[in-house]
Design brief:
By secondary structure, the protein is of the alpha/beta class. It is 37% helix and 15% strand. The longest helix has 14 residues. The relative contact order is 0.15.
Amino acid sequence: MFANLALPLMCAPMSFASSPELAAACSRAGVVAGWQGGTYTNMAEFERYMDRLADIAGAPPIVNLPARIATEDIGPAKLALLEKHHAPLVLCSLGAPTELIKRVHGWGGKLIQDVTTMRHAEKALEAGVDGLMLTCAGAGGHTGFLTPMAFVPAVRRMYDGPIIVAGGIADASGIAAALALGGDIACMGTRFIATPESGVVAGHRDMIAQSGVDDIVIASAMNGVPANWMEPSIAAVGLDHRKLPKERTAMPDGVQAWRDIWSAGQSVGLIDEVEEVDQLVRRLTSEFEALDFRCDWRARLARFEDIMTEDAG
């Protein structure tokens, strides 16, 4: 499953930013290709993503779904499509994964759960997930609040399986740091938003390249859950981030979170330009290989090949 990775790196599934073009470019470049399947209601687009990835002999795709997907209106149709394509990796969040694990294992896939706390990680492991993604402080979108320097080693103490590390990573040093802490794959979201292949509007990409760490603010008013947003995009719709309520509130007429108020992680301070996926991955690979960092990450990932590719049917 991981044999074609150029780097121990994953592109995060992201609302609006996820697109078939971004996923395909990441897979071809040798990066685990994330897709935000939970927010897509257009099944034709969903199927276009799966068909596009099926023809690429690159890095594996990973589809993000809410744990409660089976109870949603078009949830069964999404699961049937993933089963049809034998989706190798599913990432879930927001709920208990027990039923989803059974369904994904039924077609031979593997389920990774996105967690932000130790208790959340413990409950996911008790349910029988095949891996964890630790979303740490600094992540774009729905962020975590634990520093990776404490969170990753603490989870590694109790779990020897695959760990993906997310939150504030945008360069080769960040990838190396994730591995040094005990992770197996680093996850980048904001860095991949700032690519022409992402599904966001041009202004979102450009604002990432122009923003710094101090431009990122945490707010719950947009959708009721703490998330990281770019302050200039909040101001652009006539809001003052210093006066936002802590609970969800009505947005100005016609304004929609994610689409009009733009999310990004603290890694914006490391991103200076919009860069095509292929060029970005080649540059990161070169910079990672140039680091004086000794870690046989391919051998580490090979530890999980039997686990991640065995027939779970």
